[in-house]
Specification:
The complex is a heterodimer of chains A (122) and B (338).
Chain A (H helix, E strand, L loop, with lengths): L15 H10 L4 E5 L4 E10 L6 E6 L6 E4 L3 E5 L11 H22 L11
Antiparallel strand pairs in A: 1-2, 1-5, 2-3, 3-4
Chain B lengths: L4 H16 L8 E4 L19 H4 L5 H11 L3 E4 L10 H10 L3 E6 L4 H4 L9 E6 L4 H7 L5 H14 L3 E8 L5 H14 L3 E6 L15 H12 L12 H7 L14 E3 L2 E5 L4 E5 L2 H7 L20 H12 L3 H13 L3
Helix pairs in contact in B: 3-4, 8-9, 10-12
The chains are: A alpha+beta (122), B alpha/beta (338).
Chain lengths: 122, 338
């Protein structure tokens, strides 16, 4: 499950604070849409909503920052960047290992004179 | 057990000073992450999943030293990322050694052999090489074949040059006690000064969520693995922490014991959880709602955690909390019995 590509609609069922929390947990760049209509792309690494004026902190997409922005200046946040935590699972690695073993076994079989069912495969 | 006497005395002095001063919460090991970039992408690691512009960033030496000075912990562990990819690592280590900090440079050792000439052997510097078991187990854990052999080669080279070398091992579900005992033999034969072991933690953002240990299974695994430990095995950690892993002590987490500093600031509340950042160590200590963390808090993220960065500080604090606990630590250190 990844939020990559999500364009949240802030409303009664989804608050800005919730979207900020999702952005804080997201391991990819997001597009922060400001209330003045401008946008900034960056990685949200911190947020604090326990203070009188809640804020986020982020590095922009060139790595400049950290920048601080109050919640009050944010209209919404779009999850536009690649989710770097998605994929690359342990299961995928084990499956890769199994494929490698099968390939090795097949190659050894070939050396012993067994017919190769698909001589053109990679 | 194998913690250098000078390091033991330094830590003991630090803890006793805190207790005399009545300081309730104090740091023991600073986890200093100068960068997140790594040359491996292990499935169990939640530290490196960031966009490219974040992976390209690193702390300045001055930022690192300011954090070290503000924190005041006697031990500085440098994980990451891979710290040998930090372009200023030689200067950082030299500065820390000059400050008489005990430095554990945590590395996968892929670059260690070629970078050894950047460092000078010192009692204050130890290369803590990531080794998750025997060859097959380690290469599987780091998702790349051949890394174990590279690490062994680098360990030999570092030892030959007179460096202190320890290993750090994270254990996941399915680990074999028998194979781990063979691994302890192999590392001991290799000549490492000591070994550090810990159960893994299920990072919310780690790709692998299925292979982390739960508490009861952790007790079982460590009891089986450390039953009748061989005298020649040396562990570079508190024997009370190892007994805790075996289920012989019931400890509560000390999340402030190993505070973490990186390009985002001071991480709340601990090395493993990532719930926000403070701009200073003081802010971290004073404004983090510590009561929300640890097993007794009921926080489900803490329920099964038994990782060294939360519990080794508890074990060390326990050592100096009573004559009985101190005697237990001394006896275990001298006899090697757990």
């Amino acid at each position: 499950m990844t939020l990559e590509g999500w364009v949240p609609k802030i409303g009664d069922s989804l608050t800005l604070a919730e979207v900020v929390d999702f952005a804080f947990d997201y391991r990819g760049n997001t597009t922060i849409v400001k209330t003045d209509g401008t946008e900034v792309v960056g990685y949200v690494f911190n947020r604090d909503n326990r203070v009188p004026e809640p804020f986020i902190q982020f590095f922009d997409e060139t790595g400049n920052g950290p920048f601080t922005m109050p919640y009050s200046a944010i209209a919404t946040i779009r999850f536009t960047g690649r989710d770097t935590a998605a994929g690359n699972s342990w299961r995928a690695w084990l499956e890769h290992k199994e494929r490698e073993k099968a390939k090795t076994a097949s190659a050894l079989g070939g050396e012993r004179g067994a017919p190769d069912p698909d001589p053109h495969r990679g | 057990m194998s913690v250098p006497v000078s390091q033991m005395l330094t830590v003991a002095g630090h803890v006793i000073r805190q207790k005399v001063a009545g300081t309730k919460r104090y740091p023991l090991v600073l986890m200093l992450e100068p960068l997140f970039r790594c040359n491996l992408a292990c499935a169990g690691c939640g530290k490196i999943q960031y966009p490219a512009q974040i992976l390209r960033k690193h702390l300045s030496v001055e930022q690192c030293l300011a954090a070290v000075d503000e924190c005041g912990a006697p031990i500085v562990s440098i994980p990451g990322g891979e710290p040998l990819m930090y372009p200023l690592i030689d200067r950082l280590v030299a500065e820390l050694v000059a400050r008489k900090k005990y430095v554990y440079l945590c590395t996968n050792a892929i670059l260690l052999k070629e970078k050894l000439n950047l460092f000078t052997p010192s009692k204050y510097l130890s290369f803590s090489v990531h080794m998750d078991g025997l060859k097959e187990d380690h290469d599987e854990a780091v998702c790349r074949d051949g890394v174990y052999d590279q690490a062994v080669d680098a360990i030999r080279a570092a030892l030959a040059r007179g460096f202190r070398v320890t290993t750090n091992t994270t254990l996941f579900d399915g680990a074999s006690p028998l194979r781990m005992r063979q691994f302890f033999d192999e590392m001991t034969d290799l000549g490492v000064e000591g070994m550090m072991i810990s159960p893994g933690y299920s990072y919310a953002k780690a790709p692998d969520q299925e292979h982390f240990l739960r508490r009861v299974r952790t007790h079982q695994l460590f009891s089986d693995m450390l039953a009748n430990p061989k005298r020649r095995w040396k562990f570079n950690q508190s024997p009370l922490f190892l007994r805790f892993l075996m289920g012989k002590h019931d400890y509560e987490c000390t999340p402030w014991g190993n505070p973490t500093f990186n390009i985002f600031g001071w991480q709340r509340p601990c090395y493993l959880l990532q719930e926000g950042y403070a701009s200073s160590f003081r802010e971290l200590m004073e404004t983090t709602p510590w009561e929300n963390y640890g097993k007794r808090s009921g926080n489900e993220k803490c329920r099964d955690c038994m990782v060294h960065c939360g519990y080794e500080a508890t074990a060390v604090d326990h050592t100096f909390s009573s004559a009985r606990a101190f005697a237990e630590t001394v006896a275990a250190t001298l006899t090697g019995k757990l």
